[in-house]
Amino acid sequence: MRLFIGIPLSSIVIDELAALSVRLQSADDGLRWSLPESWHITLQFLGNTTDDRRTCLTARLRDLRHAPIPIELEDLGFFDGAGVFFAGVTLLPGLVSLQQTVAAVTLLCGFAPETRPYHPHITLARTRNKTGARALRTLKAHLRRQPTFTRFTAHEFLLYESLPTPFGSRYEVRDRFPLIP
Predict the structure, then answer these.
(1) How far is residue 178's CA from residue 165's CA, in Å, rounded to a whole number?
(2) What's the farthest any 2 CA atoms get from each other in the chain?
(3) pLDDT digit string (tens) for 86-138?
(4) CB 105 within 8 A of CB 62
(5) How many CB atoms lie within 10 A of CB 45?
């Protein structure tokens, strides 16, 4: 099973991002748009794992104590090399603290930490193929102004399983972990 840990979005932010996505996408834009039910803020990608490591992980995550955290989205952006269009997430102290705590817990269960700096974001679209650079340039040209999103407080984080499909990955929630003061 292929796992990752993430924060679900508030319904208000999902509605705001969905309205934005509908406004920006077209049938022939060359992009594979993410579905609203897949939107999340990744805390730690774990990759393929065994049942034993998953058991260790869920037990340790259940013991984790962290207060609810404010979440604030920022500007829309692009990872040109990866062919990704995203909504950025501000690196507020609570989010950084939770991400570091989760990374420390996963390390105890044998998961390798990320080597790249933490860059929280919500993936809205990906290029379909190698010619997708043109699609991203066109999308950039259509972004006249940056939207404003509603701030929210995250009261939980989730363990997701990523299930590949011909249309991209589908994410299923495998466990929930409350953020309590």
Answers:
(1) 29
(2) 49
(3) 999 999 999 999 999 999 999 999 999 888 899 999 999 998 776 677 888 88
(4) no
(5) 16
Domain assignments of the chain as residue spans, ordered by start: 2-178
- Is the CATH number 3.30.750.200 carried by domain 2-178? no
Provide the pLDDT for residue 27: 79
d(CA 64, CA 18): 32
Q: Mark out the alpha helices in the chain (DSSP H runs).
A: 11-24, 51-63, 93-108, 132-142
Q: Name every residue whose Cβ is closer than 8 Å to that of residue 179 and which is 6 or more positions away in sequence.
A: 66, 67, 68, 69, 98, 154, 155, 156, 157
Using CA atoms, how far apart are residues 115 and 123, in angstroms rounded to an integer? Answer: 20
Planar angle of CA 94, 159, 68, nearest 5 degrees: 25
What's the whole-model pTM score?
0.93
Average pLDDT over residues 7-24: 96
168, exposed or middle or buried, with CB in 10 Å at 0-12, 13-18, 19+? middle
Q: Please state, in angstroms and rounded to a whole number, the distance separating the CA atoms of residues 174 and 160.
A: 5
Length of the chain: 181
Q: How many CB atoms lie within 10 A of CB 158?
A: 19
Q: What is the C-alpha to C-alpha distance for residues 28 and 40, in angstroms, rounded to an integer?
A: 26
Structure tokens at 12: 């208000």
| Mean of the per-residue pLDDT values of the chain | 93
